[in-house]
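Explain this one:

_____
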Amino acid sequence: MTRDAEKTLLHSCPGNKGSRIERMFDSIAGNYDTLNHTLSMGIDKGWRKKGLSTLKKLNPKSILDVATGTGDLAIQACGVLNPDSILGIDISEGMMEIARQKALKAGLSDVITFERQDCMALELEDNSFDAVTVAYGVRNFEDLNKGLKEIFRVLKPEGQLMILELTTPQHFPMKQGYRIYSKLIIPSIGRLVSKDKTAYSYLPRSIEAFIQGKQMTNALLANGFRDASYKTYTFGLCTMYLASK
């Protein structure tokens, strides 16, 4: 994220970025799933499936899902990867309370557990997980490099990191269409449904401000990972990043 862009995002709310994100997601937790699936027209589920499928060869038995939110990726991972255990972590208890309810309803409470943890300082042992996943949350890290270093630390040797992140299309006509959609439609629908004045204005701005593509793979390599690569989906609306320890 550029310095000017980050200043713009943080200017309107007191506290550091982590505490601001926590308050924001707590405030929209009840409407988060409905809004996200509506705004993405359901495409987000397909993106998650594609990302998780890249981990099948690894056959991970222990998975850490960082910025788990309402648990969609963790729950979907059970069907795609059949792990022994998944730990979902987030700083928003409001989001994770919904995740716990969803896991219970799906009969997965014995596989998936949720804990409030700050990914800047994980209270987890070194070399603990076969795979780490982050879906649409890495741009919210208070310090990207610090977060990636912590993920690297808890990942087992030869383990894999899979990141899904919303990105801005780079080519006509999707680039122009996305600009209109993100600046007008997303904030308007978000405010209408969630009654939150900032959350869905923050979403498109945070996507635009965050690094993507080669810059992101360079960040992964700079923080110890190897074999970093990326692949875009749906004309660049979503990007998957893969890297190994």
Q: What stands out?
A: Strands lie at 62-66, 85-90, 112-116, 129-135, 155-166, 226-233, 238-244.
